[in-house]
Write a structure and sequence with these properties.
By secondary structure, the chain is mainly beta. It contains three helices and 55 strands. A hairpin with a 4-residue loop joins strand 45 and strand 46. The protein is globular and about 80 Å long.
């Protein structure tokens, strides 16, 4: 869900005049410091260091997804390579790495991990250079166990390395895609500037990382050593290793009483297209009231598989892989798509949608290398009521799951959604009574998890116990309008650019917030990014009134905001509408803020909020940065803070209440120490 001055799918952009007015007004008040934030000391010993989102797991107990793998950061492993970072500046390799650090290997160098528990499979998150003209390269990576070479795997950058302005380019040498948009680099609209500014290329490189999974062929014990080596003579001048996930994968699941796709002509070698065979198996299963079973193998599918009233099971997402090419359509589809590709889609809501769809136990590997917002090249799409999506691995598609409602009662659980060009999941328009729980998300090109109430409100949905790491653009979790929704027990870490850990946004034409919004018991880490269009730092949680006021009852309780790059909490209305819209009725309680680069609360809007038992430590600048709506009246700020007691750490002093003006949009960023037990 793109969120700046540029237009996105179905979302009007601001005019150039509005963008110039906004940026000019804000540039007089703010600056955009480069931020490099210190992390924990490096580790080069033999003992394994297990983390969650590059944190001590004890700091995030009870938050995030329950997953079958354990995470080890490369910077904590034994290496003769170079540790890069920490750095939170966009367009840098460390900024997009988990924990903002990684290991850079030149040919001949290695990084070695010690298994903390038995494993027969690993996932490597890595980056290698792009081709000089774009499009990616391939390069080998050696995998050895206990000093014995196991095999070489082929890494690729064909799904990485985007450039330029939204919706981005694969060409590192391209000029500006939108010279009529405001850009921070020259503080100007280039096409309206004389002389035309010099724009260096590649312009705004981003989305550097990819990941690859590997079954090891046998089970290795805790204490065994996994060494990853960039071989001498590699085509890659460098290989960056971010982390290793290790896992003990269960044997393939066998389903005997089912419509086995092999009986309908599916090819498990992937040489022949199996789409028609899947259609036949689905039709047979519906007639006979059987499940569809897809045995181990790689099945080529290059179009949508339409699903309705059917259960499709694989042998497990390590074993059953549905893989397809992106295919150009001879003419654009009615919805604007110019490509199709592999995906399981419910019927369109306007056609009644699908019901009773149950998908589990397989991987979907797409082939999406560019962002075209009109393309329906998502792994899961359409409308699916009374349905379940469980245990899938979704990779290299545009969006992992994009649901266009109205629809109701879908449960999305225990999925891994990684390396997407855009969102991991989006509830778009009228999704109700649905649950997204225990999903693991990493390296999205837009919001990790989103509810977008365009035209029809999303109602009574819950995002619970999910982990979202390293969205390269936008937010970890975003709620755009809606009624009585809940965001709870999630772990969000390392958003990179123009977003926050959690955003509550009145924007993109969303229906208003009504009823309640509950944001409870979440943890963010190293969240709150630099908003390049405004030249300011955002909060780990960010409330944004752009299209209308936010005045529903919002309860934020039990959250922990750890090592926030700028502010922990930010409430803002857009400059052109600052005198029209406000943010009110927001209540914070039982919050822990451990480390901010600047403030605990930054208010840049009219409105109010209350605070109870909000404890803060390691605050970088001032506790409260209260600008209100920038009129600086004798009566004080247009934003009022209510102290309900128990706010420890000295951040909410009595003299700040209710609405003292303390406006400093350019406080120096003071990197906090790493978060610790409270």
């Amino acid at each position: 869900m793109f969120r700046s001055i540029m237009p996105a799918r179905g979302r009007p952009g601001r005019s150039v005049a509005t963008a110039v007015a906004l940026a000019t007004a804000l540039t007089t008040l703010v600056g955009g410091p480069t931020v490099a934030v210190a992390g924990p000391p490096t580790h080069s010993g033999a003992a394994p260091v297990v983390t969650r989102a590059a944190l001590d797991p004890a700091l995030v107990a009870g938050r995030g997804a329950d997953v079958d793998f354990v995470e080890q950061e490369a910077e904590n492993a034994r290496t003769n390579g170079e540790i890069i970072g920490p750095d939170r500046s966009a367009y840098t390799l460390p900024a997009e790495a988990s924990g903002r650090r990684a290991v850079r290997l030149t040919p001949g160098r290695y990084v070695e991990f010690v298994l903390p528990s038995a494993a027969n499979a690993i996932t490597v998150r890595y980056s290698i250079p792009d081709a000089p003209q774009g499009g990616g390269i391939t390069a080998p990576l050696g995998v050895a166990v206990n000093g014995k070479h196991l095999r070489s795997v082929t890494l690729t950058s064909q799904y990485s390395w985007l450039y330029n302005q939204y919706p981005f380019s694969n060409d590192p040498q391209a000029g500006l895609l939108h010279p009529d948009w405001w850009i921070t680099e020259c503080s100007c609209v280039p096409s309206a500037t004389t002389p035309y500014p010099t724009i260096s290329t590649p312009f705004r490189p981003t989305h550097f990382y990819d990941e690859q999974r590997l079954l090891l062929g046998r089970t290795y014990r805790a204490g065994d050593r996994i060494r990853l080596t960039a071989p001498a003579g590699s085509a890659a001048a460098w290989t960056v290793i971010d982390l290793l996930d290790s896992e003990l994968v269960a044997p393939p699941r066998i389903r005997l009483l089912a419509a086995n796709v092999l009986a309908f002509g599916a090819d498990p070698t992937g040489r022949r297209d199996s789409a028609d065979a899947l259609d036949k198996a689905i039709a047979f299963a519906r007639r006979t009231h059987l499940k569809v079973y897809i045995p181990p193998g790689t099945y080529q599918v290059n179009r949508h598989i339409i699903v309705d009233d059917v259960t499709i099971e694989g042998a497990g997402n390590w074993y059953t892989i549905i893989k397809g090419r992106e295919v150009a359509l001879p003419t654009a589809a009615p919805d604007g798509s110019v490509h199709t590709g592999v995906g399981f889609y419910g019927r369109d809501a306007v056609d009644g949608g699908s019901r009773n769809v149950h998908l589990s136990g397989f991987a979907i590997e797409g082939d999406v290398r560019e962002r075209i917002d009109t393309d329906q090249v998502n792994a899961i799409g359409g409308a699916m009521s009374n349905s379940t999506i469980d245990g899938l691995y979704l990779h290299h598609t545009k969006v992992g799951l994009w649901f266009d409602g109205p629809m109701t009662n879908v449960r999305v659980t225990n999925n891994i959604i990684v390396d997407q060009i855009a969102d991991a999941l989006n509830f778009h328009t009228g999704v109700t009574n649905s649950l997204v729980a225990h999903n693991f998300v990493r390296n999205t090109g837009d919001d990790g998890l989103a509810m977008w109430s365009e035209k029809t409100a999303n109602t009574r949905n819950t995002f619970d116990h999910n982990t979202v790491q390293s969205p390269t653009l936008a937010n970890g979790i975003a709620i755009y309008g809606g009624t009585d929704n809940t965001v709870s027990h999630n772990l969000i870490a390392d958003p990179v650019r123009e977003g926050s850990g959690i955003q509550v946004g009145s924007r993109f034409g969303a229906e208003p917030f009504t009823g309640h919004l509950w944001i409870t018991n979440n943890t963010t880490a190293r969240a709150g990014t630099y908003e390049l269009n405004w030249n300011i730092g955002l909060g780990a949680i960010w409330f944004f009134a752009l299209d209308r006021s936010i005045d529903a009852t919002i309860e934020v309780a039990g959250d922990a905001y750890l090592d926030s790059t700028y502010n922990a909490i930010m409430l803002v209305s857009d400059w052109p509408v600052k005198d029209l819209y406000s943010i009110t009725n927001v209540h914070f309680r039982d919050i822990r803020v451990d480390g901010t680069g600047t403030s605990v609360v930054s208010a840049r809007t009219a409105g109010s909020a209350s605070f109870a038992n909000v404890d803060a430590r390691n605050v970088g600048a001032v506790g409260v940065n209260n600008c209100g709506s920038f009129h600086f009246t004798p009566a004080g700020s247009e934003f009022a803070l209510t102290d309900l007691g128990g706010n420890d750490g000295g951040w909410l002093a009595p003299w700040l209440l209710p609405n003292t003006i303390t406006c400093d949009d350019r406080p120096p960023v003071s990197p906090p120490p790493p978060p610790a037990h409270w």
